[in-house]
Amino acid sequence: MRQLTILTVFISTLFVTFVSSNTEDLTDILPESHHSKLFREIYTQLATSHYSTVALNDQLSEAYLTAYIDRLDSPKRFFMASDIAEFKKWQYKLDDLAKRGDLSAGFEIFNLLRERATDRLRHNIELLENKQHKFDFTLDEHIFLDADDRDWFIDSKQADDFWRKAMKDSMIRLMLSGKEQQEARKLLIKRYKALLNRYIQRNSKDVFQQYANAFASLYDPHSSYFNPRSSENFQINMSLSLEGIGAQLTTEDEFTEVVDVITGGPADVQGILKPKDKIIGVGQGDEEIVDVIGWRIDDVVDLIRGKKGSVVRLQIDSGGSSDKIISIVRDTVKLEEKSAQSHVISIENDGKKYNIGVIEIPTFYMDFEAARRQDPNYKSTSRDVRKLLKELKQQSVDGVILDLRNNGGGSLYEATALTDLFIGYGPVVQIRDANKKIYRNQRARYDAYYDGPMIVLINRLSASASEIFAGAIQDYGRGLIVGSQSYGKGTVQTMAELSSGFLKLTVSKFYRVSGGSTQHRGIIPDIKYPSLFDSDEIGESHLDSALPWDQIHPVPHQYSAELKELIIPLSKTHKKRVLSDANFSSLTQQLALKQEWKEQNRSNLNLEQRKSRDESFDESRLAIENKRRLEQNLKAYKDIEAWEAAEEEAEENKDTDQFPTAESDPMLYETGILLSDQIKILSSTKYADKKSKLATQLKQ
Q1: Which of 5, 292, 326, 359 has its CA 20 to 30 A from that of 664?
Q2: Which of 255, 390, 232, 242 is nearest to 319 (CA)?
Q3: Tens of pLDDT, residues 650-680
Q4: Pairing state of beta strands 502-511 and 331-334?
Q5: 606 and 533 in a common domain
Q6: What is the pLDDT of residues 274-300, one digit of tens each?
Q7: DSSP character for 543?
Q8: Same domain flag for 493 and 592
Q9: From CA 195, how far away is CA 18, in angstroms rounded?
Q10: Among 663, 654, 588, which Cα is nearest to 631's?
Q11: How far is residue 5 from each of residues 248, 358, 516, 657, 692, measured CA to CA in Å?
């Protein structure tokens, strides 16, 4: 279960003191004196200001209990089935306790978790430190790591067997990453001691935040409580001036997981760190990497913090056969510094050359401070794109691609202003608040600056303001949308100050001019590409309690059906073309292989079989890549190491533009061909005659 407190990574030094396995018995954690009042504040704010109206009744109480247990032990590693049965006594009482600010149930459940976890971790450490205990890596056995495939432990024997297998799995992973068996064992001991230490150090503030956030999550996944320490990190994140690596993190079970890589930040520039990557180790410069599995997210954030210009090394698990270590130079992140960029790609289509302008828009930014000072040269997405369009017009491009892939949103004002460059007069988006009042003041107010052929390219990480822009372009029939289904983030949050900390809560929802919400469903492309990201893992639809898609009345707006008629013929030629296109076909096959790999829900605990499986995966990847290369008369790679070395070299030289677009970005190149197809059809004599005939019939 994802803990939806999102923090941005910054820098400092952290010293961790480990406890020994003979720590004295734990003292129960109790609420602080002000916690009851603070919880009632949170309850009142959610009940009166949140977009959704949630009835505080027995049904919600049952959901609250489930959410809290899931938040504490979603991997089903510590609680026993008997514990879950015992917690049923709170099943229909938590709603009444919440109204009174009574936190006794939440603290009682957490204290039992802490007891179970520390007992189990001490047992694991004792077993690993026992040199007489040997792990047999030749047995043919498996483990189901996904909690959805397992029930709660019936007894200690079942728990012991699971943890024996879990330790074997962890050791195999470390050994396949290059560790010797004894080295892997020592690292696992260190990892468990770190996790044990963190359970022992849990305090009242930690428990309160977990219990309060379980409650807030019943409203929607973007509503959460920030204690004063978390609030400080969040406020720095929102300031748009970040000194660090530029990544947003969250807690996923015992792992620190990347939610987003901030546009313009060091991690974005470095180019390897991706959403869903798990950070399992952190090192300062050339120092030894510290294992951070099981750490509190606050402590991981502190460990990654450091001085501008210094190097942090991250050990990441990207879901492949082995971990990777990447180095990132810490720096100040200014979101507005990663501005829109343009370039031109040449497309050969039926013997004719088309020059297609590409405008990459990484975020919807605006220098609000410079705008307030009335600086005539202040930077913003719409102003920069207008300049780029002017330059592309001067280069006589045949059409323009707006590339919104990985654009997580930003300024609503800029989303509206950008739309204004393409559609002319009319509404852009509707906004409905918690009182169901609808606002339609986000409008395009000028003639379209560019009225030529265009396509908008999106993917699963296109969210919020990106979806507003793409939705408006689609609703007006101004341009086709291609790519994969977008994220589906169609809500607005605000920060409410509390007596201690802040509450982030959802207060509004976006709706397209056609009436449908961008929430949950996102934007469905007119022509779909395979997704680089698993929609079951990334996107609003996979989050618990996400607000649903719905619709309101459409608002009158212009609509051109011209492009809608082209979707079927363009889709047919697209599907036929990509089957024979070596680059696009290779990309599709690699994605399918990766998905097949991820869908295997159990881990083999036989070391040689596991190693063979990993090698088979690498060989399959290499075979797909070499097939692509041979089809293009390129030399095949000798082995996976040669391929990885070539990729590393290409990454170091990525700014030299040494690879053609067809190879470096098959989806962008295919979009260029689609746009050239669109231009070709619209300019054909046959199509012009058809339009003329239709116009004559309409006049009659």
Answers
A1: 326
A2: 255
A3: 666 654 455 677 778 999 999 999 999 999 9
A4: unpaired
A5: no
A6: 777 888 888 888 888 888 887 777 778
A7: S
A8: no
A9: 9
A10: 663
A11: 10, 36, 29, 38, 58
- Coil, helix or strand for 305? coil
Residues forming a β-bridge with 356: 345, 399
Query: What residues are labeled active site?
Result: 464, 475, 489
Q: What's the domain count of the chain?
A: 3
- DSSP bridge partners of 308: none
Model pTM score: 0.84
- As a residue count, the chain comes to 700
Strand partners, 326: 314
Which of 560, 593, 626 corresponds to the end of one domain?
Answer: 560
- Separation CA 557–CA 428 (nearest Å): 9
**Domain co-membership, 500 together with 413:** yes
Q: Does 24 fall in a domain? A: yes
Work out the burial of residue 142: count CB atoms within 10 Å of its CB; fewer than 13 is exposed, 13-18 middle, 19 or more buried. Answer: middle
Per DSSP, the three-state class of 327 is strand
pLDDT value at residue 654: 55
* Residue 187: closest CA among 321, 288, 291: 291
Q: Phi and psi at residue 489, in whole multiples of 5°?
A: -95, 100
Residue in this structure with the two tokens 């719905």, named with its chain if needed: 550
23 token code pair: 């720590």
Structure tokens given for 632: 């293009």
Residue written as token pair 């190879």: 663
Q: Is residue 307 part of a domain?
A: no
Distance CA 579, CA 563 (A): 24
- Full residue range of the structural domain in which residue 33 is found: 9-225
475 and 539 share a domain?
A: yes
Query: Are the CB atoms for 487 and 534 separated by under 8 Å?
Result: no
User: Whose CA is closest to 167, among 197, 198, 202, 130?
Assistant: 130
Q: Which of 333, 411, 397 is nearest to 365 (CA)?
A: 411
20's tokens: 């020994």
Q: How far is CA 35 from the centre of its chain?
A: 32
Question: What does R_g of the chain's alpha carbons equal in angstroms?
Answer: 27
Q: Are residues 24 and 171 in the same domain?
A: yes
DSSP letter assigned to residue 365: -
Strands 454-458, 399-403: parallel, antiparallel or unpaired by DSSP? parallel
442-455 residue pLDDT tens: 999 999 999 999 99
Q: What are phi and psi of 80, to 5 degrees?
A: -100, 160
Closest CA to 329 of 314, 316, 344: 314
Strand order in the sheet with 527-528: 341-349, 352-360, 399-403, 454-458, 480-483, 527-528
Note whether residue 232 is domain-resident: no
Question: Phi and psi (nearest 5°) for 458?
Answer: -130, 165
Four-residue CA torsion sign, 57, 63, 65, 68? negative
Is there a single domain that holds both residue 178 and residue 147?
Answer: yes
End-to-end CA distance of the chain: 63
CATH assignment of the domain containing 481: 3.90.226.10
Arithmetic mean of pLDDT over the chain? 87
What DSSP state is assigned to residue 542?
G
- Are 344 and 201 part of one and the same domain? no
Choose the weakest-confidence range: 197-201, 250-254, 372-376, 631-635: 250-254
Residue 207 lies in a domain: yes
What tens digit of pLDDT does each residue of 146-166 get? 888 899 999 999 999 999 999
| Torsion angle of the four alpha carbons 509, 511, 515, 516, in this order, in degrees rounded to the nearest 10 | -80
Query: What residue type is assigned to position 589 of the chain?
Result: Q
| 643 plus 504 within the same structural domain | no
